[in-house]
Amino acid sequence: MAPGTDAGYGQWAAACPPLRRNLQLLSPDEVELAKMLLNEGQIHLFEHWPEPGVDDDNKRGFFDQVRRLNSSYPGGLVSYIQNAKKLLADSKEGKNPYDGFTPSVPSGEVLTFGNDNFVSLETAGIKEACNAAFVLVAGGLGERLGYKGIKVALPRETTTGKCFLQHYIESILAFQEASCKMVDEGCQTKIPFVIMTSDDTNALTIKLLESNSYFGMEPSQVKILKQEKVACLADNDARLALDPSDKYKIQTKPHGHGDVHSLLYSSGLLEQWKTEGRKWVLFFQDTNGLLFNAIPSALGVSATKGYNVNSLAVPRKAKEAIGGITKLTHVDGRTMVINVEYNQLDPLLRATGHPDGDSNCETGYSPYPGNINQLILELGPYIEELKKTHGAISEFVNPKYTDSTKTAFKSSTRLECMMQDYPKTLPPSAKVGFTVMDTWLAYAPVKNNPEDAAKVPKGNPYHSATSGEMAIYRANSLILRKAGAQIADPVVHTFNGQEVEVWPRVTWSPRWGLTFKSVKEKVHGNSSVSQRSALVINGQNVFLEGLSLDGTLVVNAADEAEVKLTGHIQNKGWTIQHVDYKDASEKEEIRIRGFKLEKIEQLEVNYTEPGNHSLSA
Ligand SMILES: O=c1ccn([C@@H]2O[C@H](COP(=O)(O)OP(=O)(O)O[C@H]3O[C@H](CO)[C@H](O)[C@H](O)[C@H]3O)[C@@H](O)[C@H]2O)c(=O)[nH]1
Fold this sequence. Notes:
Bound molecules: galactose-uridine-5'-diphosphate
Protein name: UDP-sugar pyrophosphorylase
Catalytic activity: a monosaccharide 1-phosphate + UTP + H(+) = a UDP-monosaccharide + diphosphate
InterPro entries: Nucleotide-diphossugar_trans, UDP-sugar_pyrophosphorylase, UDPGP_fam
Structural class: alpha/beta
Shape: globular
Family: Belongs to the USP family.
CATH architecture of the domain at 448-616: 3 Solenoid
EC number: 2.7.7.64
């Protein structure tokens, strides 16, 4: 008698005859997975299965996916379903995840750009950089931006057109070089760079790296870790949702950037870095063009304060879509300093005696610093913690219910997790701190499409391609000013419905101005840049010595070339042309910023030979 027809065979599947009839197709490990699914209340996944002989490949494909979902989640699908049941029940009940906690304003390091403390922290940070590893989380689709490519391929600014990924890699290489120079006997260390991708971004990220020779980084320095999506949940009983277009597939959605911790843990990289004597892991997000301005001093804070966790923050406008760093004190005495996500801060404050909720104080900002999600973790304690948790991060669920009975969802939901929730499981002895810096210096992400950006309440940041690029010119102009150069005031323009300050278009390669000290060393005399000017510096040893620029100057210099820029340079320069975001004749990366540079005339100089050079008009 064939096994499938044996009356006793597959008794465990008796509740689901269609599965039981198909058991003969399954391998032993698939049988175990099927048992687990039935135990966890997932009988509906098989109820539509036809007789053996029909769609057998699809049935096997179903188990391939179940196997993947099971192995990529800490604790497997059993844990996922059980966690989901609990979180969905809490959500239905309207349970506040911060029940019992009272928020208060935490204290941390507040830095002032350019003062002595800032400069000495930058020096401390550069010294530590050769003991660091960088991790970029770049698995997000960027739905709010709506750009069809990957976000790290977008130009960071359009004077050079260099994309975010190129800028990040060049910055890490500049750190590597500067840090190695500070070690007495010199050092050869290569700073590791991990990129977390997802199915949505993986192939395009690899293609971008490969077609650009890794932007100068050694390919072995770069490691790609791909996050898997998680199963969607159809109802409050955490029944897994089938894909509407394929009944042999479980529908999946991204699990969030918190996956980075379990992926790093299971990759073995952390242990390898520890063996190599590394001390710090720096996490960052996909489109913040200013981020590396903040890294040297923030790493300096971690090193000098001995922070196990250091979150970078900026002053936050109430209701701005960034989490607030908050001290939470539980009725039982426990305290933690943690990011409270923007949609939770307001209800938490209202529930704890702040009737105005998330509002600005007398400074014009929320008293809770805004988390920009750049985290610096000390490697040793990080590994110890992950040995306990395997990188599992506290999760949340955000179902959209059809009505107030909260019995059905508008569409399937899933569990999510955020990388900044890592400190939630830490013991009270952990040193968790944060570092606040000026927004103009450290934070200008590209997240919103033009239409949504134009609707942002007045005074709140746009976080668009327009504001992201303009923020770079503003930051560089302000840094040069602080270094002693005369930089013209900005003018105000409206692009794609967003009013922005337009500063002179100053950009430089990371090797030129990695820290404020390095900029200051290269700005002498009475140099000036007019409002309509663009200055592009690409080289390490380029000095502004009495340069007066009114137009566009592009300087490219080899490492051994020392170039002095003096005298008055004037030309027609590059003008800024308005572009409407609906104008399909322009490329998408231009349309979304609402302007383009019309390159009418420029002076471009190239110094390829070693030695001293001087450009004087
Ligand atoms: O599954 C995912 C989801 C996102 N990401 C990556 O995570 C980063 C952040 O994603 P979003 O830009 O969508 O993040 P949010 O704007 O929702 O919010 C996050 O960034 C804000 C600051 O930019 C605040 O710090 C906030 O607290 C934090 O959750 C991006 O690099 C994105 O590519 C992933 O790698 N995988």
